[in-house]
Structure formats: C-alpha cells, structure tokens
Recover the amino acids of this structure.
C-alpha cells in the first residue's frame, strides 16, 4: 500500500471518529435528528455516506472499514463498474434491470416462505426484529492478489504484498519450513497426493489474466461470492483436525480457517443454482431530480418494498440467512445477513412514532410528499421505516484451534425508507432515503449442495466414505485432481473435514 493511501485511510478514520459522535440506537432522539436532516436537505441526506456509517452492533461505536478499492477508484466511483465486471458479470444470478418492484424484484422469488406482506401482520406476529437460527461464520475472502487459497497466511516470511507478482514468486520459489505453515491449497494438494499441486497452481493462475492485461491484480478480487453462501450452507468447522496425507505418513493439521477456505472455494466454483432478485447499473453518475431521486429505473436498486418483505419473511419467518450486495457502497457486498430490527416514523411529519397507526399516512393527505410523482398508481397509504441491519463480515485467517460465534465479526448499518401500501395495506413499493442501501439479494435453495466435477467420479464408482485418520482411497485422489483443474475441491473431502472437526474436543 502506498504511503499516501495510508494517510488517506488514516484521515478518513479520524474524520469519522471526530465527526460522528451520536449513538446508532433506534431511539426517538436519533431518528428524529436524522429525519430533520432529511427534511432540511433531502438530496444531501440521500448522498451523505455518514448516514450509512457502519458500526459495532454491541458497542454502537463507528467502524471504519479498510476499503478493498483504491482511493482513486472510490473517489471516481470506478468501483461500481469494477465490482460488476469481476464479481458478478460472469455469474448467472446477475441480471439486467432495476426499478419499482419489477418482475426480477419480487420477494417471492427469493424467500423460502412468503407468509407476510402487510406491516400489521408482521407486527402482530412479532416480526419487527429477528435473527437467523444458525449464525453464518466469518472467514477471509481470499484475495487473488495474495494468491487466494495459495496464500501462506501462517508463514511469517510471506510478503503479503500489494503486488501480486511478489506474492506469487514467494509461493512458487520458497519452500515452506513446515507442513503447518502451508497454505490451505498446499495442504489440500498434499492430502490428496497431488505432486503437481494442481489446486495451488489454479489459485496462482487465477491472477495471471489480470496481471497480463493490467499489470496488476486489484486487492478487491476474491471469493466472497463463495464465502458468503458457504458461511450458512456448510456447518461451522469447530476444531482443528489432524489428517493423514495420501502417502500414509505425513500428518496435516487443518485449522478451522483452512476448512473454511476450502468450503468457500467449493461454493465459489461448484455452487448450484441460486435464487436472485435485483439487477445491475453501469452508470457511475445516474441522473437524479432535485431531491436526489434516481431517474433511471435501471439504477434504482432493489425496491424498499421488496427489501422489507424479503428480509422479514426470510430472516423473521424462515430464520435462514441470505446474501446482500450494495453497489453504491464499496464497503459492503456479498455479505450474509444475521439480523434486523425496525421502528416506525411518519413520512409526512418526519417524526419517530411508537406504532404503525401513527406511522401510516394516506396518500390523499400527504401533501408534502417529495416523491409523489414516482409513487405506484395503486398506492393508498405510506409508512416510514428505520431498519437496523446486521450482517457478518470477513476476518483474517488464523491458526486458532477452535472456532465459535465469538470469533465472528458482525457489522450493523441503519436504513431509512418508506413503504407504499395499497388499499388493503399490502406492501407494493417504497422510496429509499439513502443512496447507499442493499442492491441485490440472493441465496441457494435450502437443501442445496455445492459439488465439484470430481465428486461425480466418487459417486459413479460408489467409493466408500473416507475417515480422515486414514489416507484417501485411490479413487478419491484421482477425483480430487480432476476437480482441482477447475479450482474445485471435492465436496466429499470438505464435508468430511467439517464433520470430523465438530467431533474433536
């Protein structure tokens, strides 16, 4: 990292610490202050990134996250295009178009069960706050610039350079002093008896096309699109586990971080079809009106009505996580949701209120509606919402011998929006009061399983289950190498490691 970048990050953190002293609790004082700022200058409020400042959900202290994008990219908004290009453009769940609850923005196309679509029903059933039943686990996003899973994170000599070539040269030319300091992919290659180190070579090669084309590999490139679903689709590895390599002699210690890495890679490259709602926008500066409302419907992001209906039904009803992205917020994308809670405000008076009745205003009486010309023609009422969202974030890999929720990193952020209701009080739309908010949402089917092409070899040969205390069956070593050619670890191996890690004491 350049010295001037370090100064910029430090200045940003100092500004955040000195200029944002309010608690983020959803109390009337804080909510009313924010709404007064919106009333005074809605366009400024919508664009002000401090209104979506991330914070610790327990201490309510602001969190200044280290951006994965360069200072220049952030200031120019190039990160919007970069994220679309790398993280999502090649993914089947990335579709075209955004706007007021379009066909690709329907909550029922995402959630496991759509039970509630009226605010009154949500409140009556205790859905104003909820959290998942099984917490997603934190992990690294395994940056390609560091070699992805080939990164020797426990090797004190590993450069951890911002220069991809420097890191790759170290991995390729330096022999590790011990098996324990090997990278996750090197341990996997040793486990499966792959003398060609196929998986490690695949991790190294992932950065080659970018380095050849641009002379660098951006630090934001990684496999968060694999970690995010894996964090709640694969059980948490609870303890380190010692396994026997294919040679029958070498013992390999797989730490929870190593198993999480392989799980994330499996879900990045071998995931089944996912449910997806939302879209993409390639405009860095979409046109907007005087209130800050984006005019191009393709850049409107997920509708607040869709967002509210989806999170309440998925987290509140099914209590199973899903993944969010926020294109206009470089600090958040592909993060698994942990919990939410919300309170009301009246969109006409812009005041915090204690109940839904006081938060609901009829369209006919809402004379000062700044977004009146964008409302659905079926809107009969509107209600204001302030939601606290908590999601799980990345952490640095380590040689911790055990893992639990205490090692997870969670981050919260507050969103302001109103909801449009029809004459039956069903949620049919809404307006965001901030530019930075959830963009698209996705999740795998409840019983989905990520697999590699190598798993087909195992299943077709009816190979017996593997006990990690024994070397892999010969048929598994061949299958593993076939999967490694496509950067896919065997699901059978990953799942066995997870299962046995939960049995360790």
């Amino acid at each position: 990292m350049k010295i001037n970048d370090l100064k910029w990050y430090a200045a940003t953190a100092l500004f955040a610490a000195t200029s944002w002293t309010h608690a983020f609790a959803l109390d009337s004082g804080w909510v009313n202050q924010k709404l007064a700022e919106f009333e005074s200058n809605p366009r400024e409020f919508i664009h002000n990134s401090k209104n979506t400042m991330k914070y610790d959900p327990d201490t309510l202290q602001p969190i200044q996250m280290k951006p994965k994008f360069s200072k220049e990219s952030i200031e120019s908004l190039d990160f919007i295009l970069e994220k679309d290009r790398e993280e999502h453009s090649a993914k089947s769940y990335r579709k075209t178009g955004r706007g007021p609850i379009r066909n690709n923005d329907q909550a029922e196309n995402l959630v496991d069960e759509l039970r509630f679509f009226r605010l009154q029903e949500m409140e009556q059933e205790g859905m104003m706050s909820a959290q998942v039943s099984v917490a997603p686990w934190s992990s690294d996003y395994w940056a390609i610039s560091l070699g992805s899973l080939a990164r020797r994170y426990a090797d004190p000599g590993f450069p951890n350079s911002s220069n991809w070539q420097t890191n790759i040269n170290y991995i390729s030319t330096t022999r590790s002093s011990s098996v324990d300091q090997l990278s996750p992919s090197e341990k996997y290659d040793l486990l499966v008896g792959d003398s060609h180190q196929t998986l490690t070579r695949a991790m190294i090669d992932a950065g080659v096309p970018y380095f050849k084309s641009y002379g660098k590999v951006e630090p934001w490139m990684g496999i968060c699109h694999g970690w995010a679903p894996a964090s709640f689709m694969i059980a948490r590895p609870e303890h380190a586990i010692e396994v026997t390599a294919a040679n029958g002699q070498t013992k390999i210690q797989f730490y929870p971080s190593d198993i999480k890495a392989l799980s994330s890679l499996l879900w990045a490259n071998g995931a089944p079809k996912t449910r997806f709602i939302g879209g993409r926008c390639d405009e860095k500066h979409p046109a907007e009106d005087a209130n800050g409302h984006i005019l191009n419907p393709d850049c409107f992001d997920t509708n607040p009505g869709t967002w509210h209906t989806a999170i309440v039904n998925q987290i509140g009803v099914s209590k199973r996580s899903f993944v969010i992205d926020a294109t206009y917020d470089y600090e958040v994308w592909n993060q698994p949701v942990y919990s939410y809670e919300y309170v009301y405000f009246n969109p006409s008076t812009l005041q915090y209120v204690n109940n839904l009745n006081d938060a609901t205003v009829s369209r006919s009486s809402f004379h000062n509606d700044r977004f009146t010309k964008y409302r659905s023609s079926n809107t009969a009422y509107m209600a204001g919402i302030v939601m606290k969202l908590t999601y799980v974030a990345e952490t640095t890999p380590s040689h911790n011998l055990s893992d639990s929720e205490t090692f997870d990193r969670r981050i919260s952020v507050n969103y302001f929006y109103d909801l449009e209701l029809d004459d039956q009080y069903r949620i049919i739309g809404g307006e965001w009061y901030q530019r930075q908010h959830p963009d698209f949402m996705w999740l795998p089917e409840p019983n989905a399983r990520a697999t590699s092409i190598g798993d087909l070899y195992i299943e077709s040969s009816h190979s017996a289950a593997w006990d990690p205390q024994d070397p892999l069956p010969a048929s598994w070593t061949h299958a593993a190498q076939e999967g490694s050619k496509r950067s896919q670890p065997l699901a059978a191996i990953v799942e066995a490691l997870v299962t046995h890690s939960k049995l360790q004491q």
